[in-house]
Amino acid sequence: MTCASKIIESGHGRIVKAYLESLNHKILLFFILAGLTFLVALYAMAHGAYEISIKELLLALSGNGESAHGTVILDIRMPRVVSAIIAGWGLSLSGLCIQSVLRNPLGSPSTLGISQGAAFGAAFAIVLFGSQVFSATMFAFAGAFAAGLIILILATIKRLSGEAIILSGVAMASLFTSATVLIQYMASELELAAVVFWTFGDVARSNWTEIGLMTAATLLATVYLVMHRWDFNAFSAGEETARGLGVNVTGIRYAGIFTVSLAAALITAFLGVIAFVGLIAPHVARRIIGDDHRMLIPFSSIIGALLLLAADTVGRLVMGSGSLPVGVITSFLGAPMFLYLLIRGYQ
Amino acid sequence: MKLRVSDISFAYNSHPILEDVSFSLEPGNIMCLMGVNGAGKSTLLKCINRILKPKEGTVFIGEQDLHSMTGDDIARKLGYVPQRHPDNRLNVFESILLGRRPHMGWKVEMRDYELVEGIIHEIGLEDLAMRPVNELSGGELQKVVIARALAQSPAILLLDEPTSNLDLKNQLEVMGLVRRIVRERGLSAIVAIHDLNIALRFGDIFLFLRDHRIYSLLNRDNLTEEIIRDVYGVEVMLNKVGDHIIVVPH
Q1: For A293, nearest residue in chain B (alpha carbons)
Q2: Mind listing the pLDDT tens digit for each residue in B38-74?
Q3: Which of B28, B114, B178, B224 is in the most buried spot, having the most CB atoms within 10 Å?
Q4: In a domain, A36, yes or no
């Protein structure tokens, strides 16, 4: 900042100063949102069928509390809270990346058929091998990742535009959905119930190993996006401008979709279909801080995490039984929220 | 730096767009690239900075062959402004800062910020600096995208129809800005442009494309009514009004 103050003293640098101040405000806002997420996480871990005070919670987290508290928190509530945060973060970044590289506001893991691919894979495994969790997860991952790969292969062979990629994603999504319906039609009642239950995305499903895998994939996607943040900004300014600025448009597009497909496929395979977070969180972030991906990447991540955690906590505490899957809530909240954003944006 | 375009040919599938286009351009000059719609003006600009790979031929900047340069290298020499700019919510400062991308390491340096501010003052965008570009008028946006190309610190500007969609005042302002930048910074510019009168007012050299080839390459004094008729298929008169040559269709 000494350099900044030097320019400002020389009478020049008024605009740089204003710009750096606006950046600092955004950074501050990010930390406020991160703090808020942390508070919601603490709240979520303390409340539920078994009430724990914040003091007892902190004791348990530091490993000094009563063992009963420790069991509830570390084995039940904390995995759920951490899953929600990681899944919200990962899905939101997937949506952000797809929206940015395809220059299409509809981009998200569901518009590329990733979620539907996962649902198909799970349904296939459940009907074929019975409802063992392991095979359902493996096949869901295979289905989801295959959806992403098929789109990328099509795009490479036929040199598809961003728009055509989204459209082929929609086609793939619809193909996977019909295939899933066909499997459901042929399934027994018990299998049908398992298939339908699987598709309700639920953050209470995963264990620490699975959370570790989701975190690794999400971190990989985050690192990729952060490394290419200026390339993503160039995409915002238009594909031709990006090329003119030396960006390898096709390479970043494919590598980006590949990386986030991996994260979204893993998250969906472990947790089921969680709709709308990947679509909405990046839009909320854009509304707040604009298209600068240096800020958009952290903001989308934290807003996605906060949204999913809040939705799950509300579902768990307000809806009573404690077992309402968060996918149902995000679908319910997601649609009106998206319409609200659109109506406000296009007035 | 001198730009030399050598025997550029380009085809979409087997449909030829450009054949054997060669010319060179000295610093300090504005070359107007002219021809009917579909004559290959935009294609030529994109071939020059290798957004499109020409089928044959090559481009030299100074002594350097573009063929052997990376995308970032090219972006440090050539500032390209395409015809269309999709809506986005980068603000004006960020949009111009984006032009520093080919020069940037991991972090934005203070000198990048300073350079952007310098350009903002040079072009007179002070009052717009924090505005999102999707709230700008056409003329303002055109100045911002030219500012971004300048932030690349290029030797050569490639502008694809910078005045289409602008009103008369903004056409004069934008082209006046281009001329001032080219003269003051000793750059050269290639401008694809439709408006003959604006071109004649601001251009130094005129390259007319017809049937995929260079039909004529000349300066203002050598322009004739016949050339315009042959290129555009329209009979015109060239009249001198004050210092300006005016093209009037019959």
Answers
A1: B90
A2: 899 999 999 999 999 999 999 999 889 988 899 999 9
A3: B178
A4: no
DSSP letter, residue A75: I
A161/chain B closest Cα distance in angstroms:
15
Which 3 state secondary structure label does DSSP give B34?
A: strand
Chain B contact for A5 (CB, 8 A cutoff): no
Does residue A60 belong to any structural domain of this protein? no
Distance CA A75, CA B38 (A): 67
List the domain boundaries for chain B: 3-249
The pair of three-digit structure tokens given for residue B50, joined into one six-digit string: 């290798």
Question: Do the chains contact at B104 and A4, CB–CB below 8 Å?
Answer: no
Nearest chain B Cα to A3, which residue?
A: B110
Which of 3.40.1110.10, 3.40.50.1390, 3.40.50.300, 3.40.50.11290 is the CATH number of B3-249?
Answer: 3.40.50.300
| Contact at CB, A244 and B51, closer than 8 angstroms | yes
At B131, list the tokens: 């505005």
Query: Which CATH number do you get for residue A328?
Result: 1.10.3470.10
Q: Which residue has the tokens 């003052």?
A: B121
- Domain residues for the domain of A194 are 86-345
DSSP letter for each residue of B188-249: EEEEE---HHHHHHH-SEEEEEETTEEEEEEEGGG--HHHHHHHHS--EEEEEETTEEEEEE
What ipTM score was computed for the predicted complex, to two decimals?
Answer: 0.91
Please report the DSSP string for A279-290 in residue order: HHHHHHHHHHH-
| pTM of structure | 0.89
Residues from chain A contacting residue B90 (CB–CB below 8 Å): 233, 236-237, 290-292
pLDDT in tens, A101-129: 988 888 888 888 998 999 899 889 888 88
Residues from chain A contacting residue B80 (CB–CB below 8 Å): 240-241, 243-244
Residue A32, domain member (yes or no): no
**Number of structural domains in chain A:** 1
